[in-house]
Prior knowledge:
The complex is a heterodimer. Chain A is an all-alpha fold. Chain A has helices at 6-33, 37-55, 73-106, 115-140, 144-175, 184-215, 225-250, and strands at 109-110, 253-254. By secondary structure, chain B is mostly helical.
Amino acid sequence: MAHMNKSEALRQGVLIFVFLAVLTALEFFVASAIGSVTLLAAIALVKFGLVAYYYMHIYKLNLNDQDADRRSDAYKLATNRLGLWLFLLSDTFVFGGLAVSRFNLLGLTRPPLNPTLGLIVTSVLLLSSFFMNRAEVSMEHGDRKNFILFTSLTLALGLAFVVGVLGVEWPSAIAEGVTPSVSAAGAIFFMMTGMHAFHVVTGLVFLLIILRNGARGLYSSEKHWAVEAATVYWHFIDVVWIFFYPALYLIGKLIK
Amino acid sequence: MKKFFSSALARGLIWQVVGWALGAAFVTLIRILMGLKPLGIFFFTEPAWVFGGLVGAISFLAASGVISDWFKWAKGEETPEHHHDPDGWEKFINVSLDHKVIGIQYTLTALLLLVIGGIFSLIFRTELASSGLQFLTLQWYNTLMSLHGMVMIIGILLGIAGVINYIVPLLIGAQDMAFPRLNAFSYWLAPPAAVLLLSSLALGGFDTGWTGYPPLSARAPVGMQMFFLGVFVAGWSSILGALNTIATVARMRAKGMTAFRMPIFVWAAIATSIIALTATQLIGLSFQMVMFQRLFGMGFFDPAKGGNPILFQHLFWFYSHPAVYVFILPGLGVISELLPVFVRKPLFGYRWIALSSLGIALVGFLVWAHHMYTSGMNEYLSTPFMYSTLLVAVPTGVKFFSWVATIWKGKISSPIPTAFLFVLGGIVVFLMGGLSGPPNATVATDLQLQDTYWIVGHFHDTLFGGYVLPFFAAIYFWFPKATGRRMNETLGRIHFWLMTPSFIVLTLLMMRIGLLGMRRRIADYDAALGFDTYNLVMTISAFLIALSVLVFFINFFRSMKKGEPATGNVWNSRSPEWQVPSPMPAHNYDQPFEVVGEPYDYGLADSVYVRFAKEK
């Protein structure tokens, strides 16, 4: 997979994005028409698999280089990759703990939130993941101009997501009576979206760093670990939302 | 003195205080602008203290310089691979990237925290020596008792990180840890965490015990928040250290060191790191949720708002039970590592021992609710958790069989070296802890034992046998590697023979009065119950243990300067770090080595473990 040419990589990126978009639409439909939790969980898992394999290229962890020179950049790159994935594993437990808390507190009910608004911010984040993938592929092929373009687009969409959640979604939830201090349902909603938004903001900081350094020409097609790390981290944030979105907006009966 | 005030540690501490004050002032200003009450009973309000505490911790890290390389990277600047450390003692209070320096920094910080935690216990143990309230108020008793728990736990975590940091790269033939800057960062999280934790003493303390259960923790004084923040920061130290350990072992092993030729301590380090990397997040999350419940009224654990206090216990114990395996696995690893050296025999059942560490770690993820039989959780959960808990005894039993079989017909030198004494003491005391465990795992008996002094006796035995005694063994054993000098054997023996019997008396009496009905965590008891004599003996034992630790410190600091020189293979060990002269040079091995045989073939002729490359 590492030796894909530019057009193959583009085709793959688009194809995965289309799959993810269709699955997201299907999810919305399943939630409103059937309401099957099992089906929703299955769709989320498929989406997670697609992102983890194609966008986060988790298979790169398996590249066997035990015989390589320990001081070579390639060997250190693989070590860095392992370190990043270990960090993501650790972080998964935070979000997993929040998801468990949500089901413990609310069971199969959900707070009265605006599902269309949820779908919109989800789409924004999904689209940002697509451009993030394009940015990384561009850098892999040494295409600095497109890297800057796509990273900027990702940044803009990421910012739109944060504004959407903190600036639109939170006030509208409060208007619906879902506030942090009135009920446990409100508390867990703000905790989950808040923790996720915190990660998005840190991801935006990383994007700013690689955008600036990329514009200064510090990365090349051979050497761009910072770009890869920021990319994988950004997709990880997307993966978290793949599970949080149905957990908050789609699953279960509305709390009256 | 000048060297101290220009050190990273001093800079960090000063800026932590400054950052704290600025952060608190900032929140106070905002409160004034919003028309809220600006000041509270401890001068600042609770949100101001919490925000200030966080800013203070970050200020510490920025001022100590441990994150400056990362900032340079973000700006696109290159940094040198290694930093040069000064030669004197001041390298231990400055940022170093050398895993050996960091290991010693961890160990010294751990010893300091263990002493502080120990002093807390001496204070409230004196209070308990006879019935009636002598000199402590209830709130002070509760605060000291709670802090004793958490300060000791963090001290233990740092001690483990110290031994792992120092030993693991040497055992696997690496030049350093996989991520040296992250390694330094993990260590430098510890001092601000300790300051935060201890600052709770000045902010009203807290009365929840180390577990911090809501609803009590939701209404304790501001000190509670400092406790939460301190644990949160220390938790990150543990998580990032574990990440580094796993990456190091996965990527930096010497040629030929396949999984089943790794030293047994490395297996233990991996097992412990898997737990610390993942489960630690859950205690951080649970404490964060209580913090937010207090700050923003978010009712996660408040039944009046539809919250569930039991949820906290699930999240909390999901870390805090496996955490005890984080404490003991490296200790048991030290026992298995040192036993063959001292009995001159192969380690019995090497593969089983290696896998039993992983087994304990993995089963450990499935046992947390055995702390909650009486909590009011769903009753159908009790039975599966009882069985999973009892299952832990199987891999633990494997270790005991291996130790006994390894000692069997071994050649033990006379007099027994101090390090070996501590290994043997660890086995005996851990056995007591292990045998007193199943009654607490079994629902029917635990309903009687829950919250009694029996439990206190049980876990002190497991932690002393599984951590404290092996930790001392490790210090006595590897001290020559770090300093080129041996610790004094006579003082070492005095240390051991004062500490271990006193400790055994202490915990047996703890269990005894627990069975007679004495509750844990209480400041006072009725004289009519007849516990006075027992408690007096326990207090005396506690002071004897303290005395033995004092002997240890005298030995430790005296031997650094005046100890008998020992630059060679003092223990006649097969392990690679003893094949080169002590103390270890800055970048470890001058020549790389290759693993060509089994690690623990003591007493077998012609068996070679490591072979060093020839000088070029």
